[in-house]
Amino acid sequence: MLHLKHCSDEQISWCIVDEILKSACTLAQDPYGNYVTQHILETGKPHESSQIILKLAGKFIQISQLKYASNVVEKCLKYGNASERDLVIEEFIAESDNNDVLLFQMVMKDQFANYVDQKIFDMGTEKQKETFINCIKTHLSVLKRFTYAKQIVARYEQLTEGTAQDQA
After folding, report:
1. Any idea what DSSP says for residue 3?
2. Range of the structural domain that residue 22 is part of
3. What region holds the PUM-HD domain (predicted)?
4. Rounded to the nearest 10 degrees, how much is the dihedral formed by the CA atoms of 44, 46, 48, 90?
5. C-alpha–C-alpha distance, residues 126 and 123, integer Å
6. Residue 158 above 50 pLDDT?
7. Which CATH number covers residue 20?
């Protein structure tokens, strides 16, 4: 067992970060641990952020619906590199492409996941935004009925109104 009192500051830091990375998924969902995970995404080394994002891959939709973990997913979008952002966004877009209507609507109207959806509008590529807008368009009448989806609907209308005016 490693005794921290015999380690340099750099060794201690490495050991702590290594343990955090091993538990990234659990920490992301914890009321206090999510702040630790967010801190590494914001200020950690690029490979540390990448490891967190890869640990969460395949779970972004699920954890975006959790109070604390949704903040971590937002930070993944904000601080991840382009390919890491693609990984997160494509998970959301893939669900809509798979005709999983109920899951897509559930994520859009979720009280926590809707913040992640809004972040996709901010961080996605133009093509990803276009795909996302088309998915929303398909479900617009249903989404308008839900409180937590109203922000998504407003962003959709703002973006499509600007496009309609550009084309006129």
Report:
1. -
2. 9-161
3. 1-160
4. 120
5. 9
6. yes
7. 1.25.10.10
